[in-house]
User: Fold Proteasome subunit beta from Strongyloides papillosus.
Amino acid sequence: MDEYKRTTTPTCTGTSVFATVYDGGVAICSDRKVSMYKMSRFRGVTRQYQLNKYCVVAFSGDFADFQWLQNILQQEEMRLRLTNPKFFMTPKAVHSYLSDLLYYRRSQLNPIWTQLLVGGMQPIDNDFTNMEPYIGVITPKGVSYKAKSVATGMGAMLLNQLLETDVRAKNYQLSEAEAKKLLTKLIELSIYHDCEADNCFDISTIDTANGVRRDNPMKILGNWDLATYNNDYQ
Assistant:
């Protein structure tokens, strides 16, 4: 592929994704909007992809690249199921696969313009009755790492510290309800500070007993009384 055919400036993008482990599972939250530059382009679009019963992939960045990655992941899982119909990719396997793919594309000077978050339940010693929460992150440059809580996109600069402070205060032993409440608070703060954020959002939870569960899309109005005192635009 020639240089001038390669994407250098993504057009339709998604903003922050938030995730945290809780007692026995993982919770992932993202809004339901894709923006063209700074303007709202598509609303009611989920930015989370359920690969199988125990793994969800979410993204910040280029929406087109994420759609392409969904097809790649689905094809890879179908290929592996040819020899074992009951096989599914674990979150750690997906994290490793995407890390290699994004690093390869970056090395070809044709990067995938997405920051990916992989969340799910990881078997301990290949024992699928004994699983632990897993969160992995991959940057467009192929840098990958594990985390117990993370914010991507604009949230990485604005809200990551708040997320870490809250979960560390409880030693990562939040209940599912507490995790959802915390992620909802982060979404509310993001719509105050990020012009690409939307007040309609998804929360997915993954645990051993129930697998992936995604709540119905929710909306939050926030408190805009503070706008009365914000005259910086004048």
Q: What stands out?
A: The CA atoms of residues 12 and 64 lie 7 Å apart. The domain at 10-229 is CATH 3.60.20.10 (Glutamine Phosphoribosylpyrophosphate, subunit 1, domain 1). The radius of gyration is 18 Å.
